[in-house]
Specification:
Number of strands: 6
Helix content: 40-55%
Largest sheet: 6 strands, parallel
Shape: globular
Radius of gyration: 17 Å
Distance between the termini: 23 Å
Order of helices and strands: EHHHHHEHEHEHEHEH
Strand order of the largest sheet: 3-2-1-4-5-6
Number of helices: 10
Length: about 240
């Protein structure tokens, strides 16, 4: 874990951190699970699938529906998901401004490290106007040996930037993502906007190892510039 104020880079998750995509993506997934005969609730769909690669969670779908998930089914999910994202995706409030400020303050040492497929990451960042600032610095856990909660995607992003991952700040909003950042050796900032069913609660993020919890993206540039010591890190 890096000492306060000594971060060499800031590594961002994508879904739920930069873009408000989880409700859209989970809405598509929930509809397709209903079609398979699983009347899963919104809350359970968030709980079971947010923060994880769907391709890694097919066993639970089979267990609940009897349907053996195929590559064609996953491709159809991605097609329907991408269509919905292209139509309705919005940035997380304050995220675009925060990224640009941090990009300037770090001299471009930022990256987006997502558990999602790279096509989705590129689509989403293009949709909200962040594709240029992250150009060449988008990483997918699905292109690594293991996706989140394994640290591989954060280690890959840090290696590309030429920094020690222990000197990186990671920005995450889910338990698997926080777990990945901690396993990489980074200092993890847990984003937890109030009253959001798509974000994991602050207690869960802290239990997974997030040392700083914040509720608004407007807080992030100052927070990663001068992190607070343990015991004074909850910003509400």
């Amino acid at each position: 874990m890096s000492a306060p104020g000594s971060f060499d880079a800031v590594l961002f998750d994508c879904d739920g951190v930069l873009v408000d995509s989880e409700s859209i993506t989970n809405g598509v997934l929930r509809s397709m699970l209903h079609e398979l005969g699983w009347p899963i609730s919104q809350a359970d769909c968030f709980r079971l699938f947010v923060g994880r690669a769907l391709s890694d969670e097919t066993a639970i779908i089979t267990a609940r529906t009897g349907f053996v998930v195929t590559d064609d089914w996953l491709l159809e999910f991605r097609r329907r998901r991408n269509e919905a994202l292209a139509a309705a995706l919005q940035p997380i409030p304050g995220a675009v401004a925060a990224v640009h400020e941090i990009n300037t303050s770090t001299a471009g040492r930022i990256a987006c490290a997502s558990g999602a497929d790279l096509g989705k990451v590129e689509l989403q960042l293009r949709k909200v106007g962040l594709d240029e600032v992250f150009a060449g610095k988008m990483f997918s856990g699905m292109d690594q040996p293991h996706s989140k909660p394994a640290p591989d995607v954060y280690l890959a992003a840090a290696a590309f930037l030429g920094i020690d991952p222990a000197r990186a700040a990671v920005v995450e909003d889910t338990v698997p993502g926080v777990t990945a950042g901690v396993a990489a050796g980074a200092t993890v900032f847990g984003f937890c906007p109030p009253d959001s069913p798509a974000h994991h609660p602050p207690e869960a993020l802290q239990a997974a190892g997030a040392t700083h919890i914040f509720t608004s993206m407007a807080q992030l540039p100052a927070l990663v510039g001068s992190p607070r010591p343990a015991g004074s890190h909850n910003l509400r």
